[in-house]
Design brief:
heterodimer; A: 153 residues; alpha+beta; Immunoglobulin-like; five-stranded mixed β-sheet; 2 helices; 23% helix; B: 524 residues; mainly alpha; two-stranded antiparallel sheet; 16 helices; 69% helix; globular
Amino acid sequence: MTIATIWCFFMFFMLIGWYYLGQQNLPTRAVRITTTQFKALADKFIEDNKVGEEKGVPIVHPPAGSDVFVIAKKWQWTPILELEVGQTYTLHISSLDVQHGFSVQPNNINLQIFPGYDFIVQFTPNQVGEYSLICNEFCSVGHHTMTGKIIVK
Amino acid sequence: MAAIATPGSFSGTRSNFRVCPVTTFKVDLAAERLIIWNAVTAIVALTLGGTYALLIALTRWPDIHLLDPGWFYRLLTGHGMNMLVFWMVFFEAAGLYFGACVLLNARLVGVKLAWVAYLLMLVGAVMVNVIILMGRADVMFSAYPPLEADPLFYLGYILFAVGAILVCCIFLATLVMARVERRYEGSVPLAVFGLLTAAIIALFTLASGAVALIPTLLWRLGIGTIDPGAYRVTFWGFGHSAQQVNLSAMIAIWYSLATLTVGSKPVNEKLSRFAFFLYILFINLGSMHHLLVDPGLGTMAKFFNTSYAMYLAVLGSLIHAFSIPAAVEVALRAKGYNKGLFGWLLNAPWKEPGFSSLMLSLFIFGFLGGPTGVVLGAGQLNLLAHNTWRITGHFHATVVGGTTLAFMGFTYYVIPLIFRRPLFAKPLVRWQPWVYGIGMALVSISMTWAGYLGTPRRHWDVTFADAAKVGIAVQLPSLTNLSLTVTGIGALLAVTGGILYVVICVGSLFMPKREARALDPMEA
């Protein structure tokens, strides 16, 4: 009984404790941005760093550690990012039309994407490989064709 | 027994009552008519939603892939609206009238207003269904802007909600009047207390829904703008809290079924009431778990609401989850089933549909629905589950395997006692909760598994064959196909159980009318 009570309180405080100790917190940085502004920023990013194309989708290779952009729109994640393993990037994601679900497979990492909000996520790819992007928020009838890719080299 | 004119003790009212020969409750005939109409409408919504469920399940089964994408998303919207909103709320309206009037021997206050409420809900539900089938609202139950639906869709949604608010107000007024007219002694029974909890949660839930949907309607009419983040905060204050209304109603029904089926009494009634009170305080805050991976909200807001607030509500659920089986055990042991630790469980009336519904509902909600919800509500883990089929797996265990199954079990008591007709096809009634419950458990477990593998919810094609044609190909893990197939099989089983339920209910409506002869629906 005593042990259970102590454990209960320990777990209770760990709910907040893990926020400081766990290093697994959710990304929370976001700024308001109009869809036109975001499109302009992302288009410039694509133009500056484009290295190729796959089925009409640009492949970009940004400098290590830079700000990178992904556009969500019906029904495509643009561009295909080519990143370097072990480098930390600042990812900006926003939608140009309706809400979308940014979902990295097979890791199953999922974020909700709005138009008008630039969702800013700092991350470090730590494994070489190709990762798929799918949309997991219903975004009208072509929703299931909305895919994309991140390549880590 | 014919309706009897009310004697002196009911003077000052024009209500007509009959006395139930089995329970000796005095039943207000005006309330009885409303219970019947609301319950029948609920079952119509369930039938519609269930038909869509079958077609959707056969589409998500990759080897069958029945519907085209347009109809899949359309019927998925219809499935969500009919099941989560119309079936539940119409049944709850019937439940609230039953709780306030029948259980308290009271008269219904505002009978005309109750019919207005019914009509508003009916018109709203019909509007929403028609607009969806016309293909002008392919937006899902959540209708996130800036995805656009026909303004009439939001209007129907709002009309329905206004009707539901009226039902809650009538329920509260009836409770007050029952008190004033001294229709019952002491505190209200625990089941009514649970329904009161449901009604209170429903009021702030519906208010939140109005805050979400009215500006959305105006935005669609060209007045003002709508912020997608703000919509999600207010919408889920409605969308998830509405499921807490269902939860409270379900637990009220659990306590009722435990009493009706094995004659159990709450182990500690004060504690059970306290558990309901915890829901009122905290459960709405828990709705923020929908927003854990949204941009624009701070970590502490997310963590406080989904950890501390939600867990205090979960504490309430744990109190119910232990006290109901304990009460059942005490009641069965008192009947002499004392052999060994689990002799009472083996000798429980498993063939009695109310009891099997109660226990299956408890099991599915308690072991599948509740724990998955707590896991999904943890911020760090939500990142791995948001918008995957794990979410769908969670709420099919709570709102379907839990709430719907409990409502079904309760129906088997309502039909002989309120509709005053014997049950149709009694051998089928024995099987119905089992077929439905096992099917739903299979659906829930396999959906969770598929979601764990990455399967998104609200998605027509996880093979991404069309995506590969127009863009980048995607391959989900190979086990995905198997998990989706299991869901399909579970869904077929559950739909069979659903059909049995509808056949039993509709068949019973055509049975000759007669007073119940016993409390047990199999003998009534």
